[in-house]
Every structure is written in structure tokens, then in C-alpha cells.
Amino acid sequence: xxxxxxxxxxxxxxxxxxxxxxxxxxxxxxxxxxxxxxxxxxxxxxxxxxxxxxxxxxxxxxxxxxxxxxxxxxxxxxxxxxxxxx
Length: 86
Description:
Layout: H1 2-13, H2 15-21, E1 43-45, E2 48-50, E3 55-56, E4 62-63, E5 77-78, E6 84-85
């Protein structure tokens, strides 16, 4: 029951508190941020995902397709067009 109450507290208070105190439990085994599910090799840090190069998003779910493309000023690489600058 203590773990459930603690998890509910962390969920209700939100991520802001978790950055301040880590929102860690006293039993050491419970995941303090069970709703954070990092993908594509991302690591959970203070209840947020730290994404590897080439990925972005709250859960590292979005691949940055044109990561190595350098375009002239005012243009962006279009992934739908083989990363051509437009």
C-alpha cells in the first residue's frame, strides 16, 4: 500500500517535483517514473528521457531522419524528398 500511495503522490505532484527530489521511493526497487518509457536506446534521467543522437521527442520516439544534412540558410532538409534541401 505504501508503494501505491507513493506512486500516486509522484503522479499527482508531477515531473517538476521529481526534478527537485528525484521522487524516489524508500524501498529502492520501485520505478519512480513508471509512465516514462524511453525508446530507441534513450535513458531515463530524472523522470525524462535523454535521447541518443538521431532521436527526439518525450520518449525518444521520433527519428531525426536528415540529421547529417547541412542546408543553405533559409532551407531545410525534407525527409520526404530524400533529405534534399528546399
